[in-house]
Amino acid sequence: MRKLLTISALLLAGLGVSAQDKQREDAATFAKDIAQPGVQVFDVRTAAEFRTGYLPNALQADYTRKEEFQERVKYLHKDQPVYIYCLSGGRSTAAAKWMRENGFTSVVELDGGINAWKQAGMSLAGAKGQQPQMAISSYLQQVQTKGWVLTDVGAAWCPPCKQMEPVLQALLNERKDVKLVKVDGGNDTEVMQSINASKLPTFIIYKDGEEQGRFTGVTSKEQLMNMLK
User: Fold this and answer.
1) CA atoms of 40 and 153, how far apart (whole Å)
2) Are strands 40-43 and 58-60 parallel, antiparallel or unpaired?
3) 72 alpha-carbon distance from chain centroid
4) What CA–CA distance (Å, rounded) separates 86 from 32?
5) Which residues are annotated as catalytic?
6) Among 12, 69, 112, 152, which residue is least crowded by beta carbons within 10 Å?
7) Is the torsion defined by CA of 52, 56, 62, 64 positive or negative?
8) pLDDT averaged over consecutive 10-residue blocks of the chain (229 residues)?
């Protein structure tokens, strides 16, 4: 009986290792898998690291900033595969563990992170020099005009910002009189500081150059419409 229990324990341990291996992939396999439709690519490095280059179609949330991470991760789909990475694998392993414990059904880690990706000879998206920031004077010129203006402080890599894209498009389709001004939440830090917009996304509504209201986070078209009255 003792021998049988020992064999069973070894088999279970082997199955556990096998299951764990399937949760982590080398760079070549990871690159092939993230090219499939329906997957979510998730970068848990800092915003500064992200700006040095990222994997195609990646969304970003800094795992070391717990409030930001837990807010943005809410906008990922738990029932769709998430392919997660950081610089070398430490943060993504911790983040993946948290996500699995909180209902995500398939979380796959990039073994060795961005370092392994580069060592495999693969390129990064967005690996360019810092883009010039929008000047505060340029922003003020755009919003201090006659009529309605909607400022969208967001970024393509921000999960809640991505969720708001169709909402904004529907709003603009219905309200042709509203001018949209976009502020890059990963680059235009001087404008963000001047208008006190520290979180993504932030929406600010102006009429005839005067601020009428603002909203931070995900909202509905109807709520934004109500602010445009």
Assistant:
1) 22
2) parallel
3) 7
4) 18
5) 86
6) 12
7) negative
8) 46 41 88 96 94 94 95 96 96 96 97 93 79 93 96 91 94 96 90 92 96 93 91
